[in-house]
Amino acid sequence: MKLLVVGASYRTAPVATLERLAVPPAEFTRILDRLVAQPYVSEAVLVSTCNRVEVYAAVSGFHGGLGDICAVLAEQADCSATALANHLYVHYDAAAVNHVFRVATGLDSMVVGEAQILGQLRDAYHWATDADSAGRLLHELMQQALRVGKRAHAETGIDRAGQSVVTAALELAAAHLDGDLTGRPAMVVGAGAMGSLGVATLARLGAGPLTVTNRGADRAVRLAESYGATAVPMAELTAALSTVDIVVAATAAIEPVLTRSVVARALADRDPARGPLVLLDLAVPRDVEAGVAELPGVEVIDIERMAALLAEGPAASDASAVEQIVTTEVESFLTWLRGADVAPTVAALRGRADDVVSAELRRLAQRRPDFTDDQRAEVARTVHRVVQRLLHQPTVRVRQLAAEPGGDQYAALLRELFDLEVPQTSPVDTVPDVMETDPTPSSGGEG
Q: Among residues 92, 58, 97, which one has the least CA distance to residue 327?
């Protein structure tokens, strides 16, 4: 099996394409099932945030696996694979491991160094485990990615600024509101992970009074109570909009929540002397209808605009330190991977030797029925010792050679020389504790 990453992100695709690719939580299991049902895909993990949609897969062949994954993604986006191909990136084997580790450390995020992506990767791993779409290879990859991400944040200052997509968006919003959000009335639309982070960040920055609205009223009430905010029904959205200066929109709705007509009615009742109404659209699909940005007195900042505006990253020394961690960890993972690839071949060789020894001992028993049980046992022990000694050095050496670049050729040579049938590795049945003990929250980050 080989590793393959196929995806689209804010770097390669417009928000409109990411909207079409985005997979809501209720659809994760169905998409994962579709992926592993493809001929060349044996394992799959799906990551879907506001900034990226990626498939991490174990495939039996590059071209076949790529075609299978592209077909599923094109089906999700309701477009042809050819049209989608211009927005996709593809990473294979070593490059795939490098990409996943860069994602885990925050190097590939819109807000470089943000830690929330770790929680989102953990959630993706949970989904794959629940759907039984992660096998031995992807279990190991995801476990190591989570560990590498935590190591990067523990050993470097890449997240020193403590930014997330929400904090970065609010900094951009402040530029339209005299540079300060203190005392600015604000509203959060959506009470999920991103909405919760929005309320918490607004409260920390001194914005207020705060209002929360959500399609599920109970969640809005609970979130509002946690931060001294006010919950309002979604039916009163227009009236609430007319009383605030800044809105963080982060729902999981399929259609825009802040439509042109809703915002226009709110503007009609709002005092224009207060300055612009700043709408931060952190959702994919978008919560703010495209025509809203054309209304006078409104500033819309969405994921696409954020990508263009966020030019500054962490200090060069911190980014360089994380790059070095990633490089070292990728090589360690590839060493494990090469060793793991040869293990089934070594096991098959020893199994073949055991079969030959057993067959010869049965022949001996037929030809020398006069042997006592003790004599048969002694002969069996002697033959087994001889075979084990003969195989020991070659199998140790092939493991060492397999850990080096290009080491897969040695396992292939063993299979050819001894005509070995090596079965596919079965998936791991249990999930390690790293999934349960990872303290990184899944809120915020890439949405």
A: 97
The whole-chain average pLDDT of the chain stands at: 86
pLDDT, position 138? 96
Domain boundaries, the chain: 2-162+431-437, 165-309, 336-418
H-assigned helices in 160-315: 165-174, 193-204, 217-226, 237-241, 260-268, 303-309
Contact indicator for 125, 134 with CB cutoff of 8 Å:
yes
Burial class (CB in 10 A: 0-12, 13-18, 19+), 423: exposed
Residue 272 and residue 297 in contact, taking contact as beta carbons nearer than 8 Å: yes
Taking only the tens place, the pLDDT of each residue in 308-334 is 666 555 555 678 899 999 999 999 898
Q: Are the beta carbons of 28 and 114 closer than 8 angstroms?
A: no
- What residue type is 119 in one-letter code? G
Between CA 69 and CA 52 the distance in angstroms is 15
Class of the CATH-defined domain 2-162+431-437: alpha beta
Contact assessment for residue 164 and residue 171, using Cβ atoms and an 8 Å cutoff: no
Residue-wise pLDDT tens digits, 338-361: 777 677 787 888 888 888 989 999
Q: What are phi and psi of 48, to 5 degrees?
A: -135, 110
Residues 122-151 have pLDDT tens digits of 999 999 999 999 999 999 999 999 999 999
State the pLDDT at residue 219: 92
Question: ∠ CA 19-22-28 to the nearest 5 degrees?
Answer: 160
Active-site annotation holder among 15, 21, 50, 137: 50
Q: With 0-12 CB in 10 A as exposed, 13-18 as middle and 19+ as buried, what is 373? A: exposed
CA dihedral 151, 157, 160, 161 (to 10 degrees): -110
Instruction: Look at residue 441 in the predicted model and tell me its pLDDT.
Output: 36
Q: Which CATH number fits domain 165-309: 3.40.228.10, 3.40.50.720, 3.40.50.1820, 3.40.50.11740?
A: 3.40.50.720
Token duo for residue 89:
């990136």
Q: Quote the tokens at residue 80.
A: 């042809």
In angstroms, rounded to a whole number, what is the distance separating the alpha carbons of residues 307 and 400? 45
Q: Is 50 a catalytic residue?
A: yes
